[in-house]
Amino acid sequence: MIELRTYAVDLLIRSKNPPSCKICASETTTFDLLDFNKTCHGRKYPSGVAGVPVMYFRCNECEFIFTDFCDGFTDHQWSEFIYNRDYYATVDPDYAEIRPRDSAQWVATFLAGKTGTTIGLDYGGGNGRMAKYLRDTGWSYDCWDPFGQTDVSSENQGKYNFCSSIEVFEHTPNPLGSLQSLLEKCTPNDLIVMIGTSIHDGVVSDEKRLNWWYAAPRNGHISLYSRKSLQVLAAEFGLTYVSMSRGRHLLVRGHTRREMQTMLLRSKVRTTAREVLRKGKGDS
Q1: Which distant-in-sequence residues (6+ apart) come within 8 Å of 99 by Cβ?
Q2: Can you list the pairs that 99-104 forms with residues at least 24 positions away whose Cβ atoms lie under 8 Å?
Q3: Distance of CA 149 to CAs 54, 112, 167, Å?
Q4: Half-sphere exposure of residue 89, counting CA atoms within 13 Å on the CB side?
Q5: Is the entire prediction scored with pTM above 0.90?
Q6: Residue 275 above 90 pLDDT?
Q7: What pLDDT, in 10s, does the model give residues 3-27?
Q8: Is 273 within 8 Å of 255 (Cβ atoms)?
Q9: Which residues pair with 143 in a beta bridge?
């Protein structure tokens, strides 16, 4: 950790002015300083405080909050300091099974009835299990991840018309570059991109700063979005932003907002009906 502490201190010394916003290029202000070991865990610091300062900035226009701490990381540094054995064992234990299973069920419910017309890609799909769960139930679904499992069919490349990206965009040091990379793998025609990341609207403020569980450098949460920043990000690529909830968002092309809202409503009805049936079976 001494090496990382030296890196952090040198970065603070070299940073004379806040960087421009990574999404809209507007001016930013210094917002808060967190310790590198802060996690999303209920205890916040299960491994103790690292003594490594991580500075976050907030855009004055779109309210995007980010740190440039990892901007210069090599693949080796990502693997050594963030996506290491402790990350999968204690920092993000839902990564292996719980999140892929729940996300696959959600996607299948949202896209119900579209099995034959959907060519799906899980962008940043980690261990590939979400895509596998969907394939096992009849979906055409591939996975791509720079640090995990990549299982992409050559015949599907450039044809993906639905792309999920769950708990990914808060990890990227380059939101514009990541969305461009995602879109390059998809069809240039009608497209739905479902992004899973928590937004900070109504949670983060000048008074509270980043006293928010989701602001966690050790989890790799280096990009924190507002609804406005996601809307601006979508518009940069000619996409329409549709808010689903605080944790799920759609970026769409060739689909109307009403169509997306109808699909969302139907998925909620299906989910509710499934829960009622499950509880009914449990009571009988």
Answers
A1: 130, 166, 167
A2: 99/130, 99/166, 99/167, 100/126, 100/127, 100/129, 100/130, 100/133, 101/129, 101/130, 101/133, 103/130, 103/164, 103/166, 103/196, 104/129, 104/130, 104/131, 104/133, 104/134, 104/137
A3: 29, 26, 15
A4: 5
A5: yes
A6: no
A7: 899 989 888 888 778 999 999 999 9
A8: no
A9: 122, 151
Q: Are 131 and 142 in contact (CB under 8 A)?
A: yes
Q: What share of the chain is helix, strand, coil (3-state, %, to 5)?
A: 35, 20, 45
Q: How far apart, in whole angstroms, are the C-alpha atoms of residue 237 and residue 78?
A: 28
Average pLDDT, integer, range 49-57: 96
Q: Which residue has the tokens 């064992």?
A: 89
127 touches 96 (CB < 8 A): yes
Quick: pLDDT tens for 201-213.
999 999 999 999 9
Tens digit of each residue's pLDDT (9 = 90 or more) over 84-120: 999 988 899 999 999 999 999 999 999 999 999 999 9
Unique residue bearing structure tokens 């699909």: 263
Cα–Cα distance, 255 to 241 (Å, whole number): 11
* Closest of 35, 282, 23, 44 to residue 176, by C-alpha: 23
The amino acid sitting at 212 is W
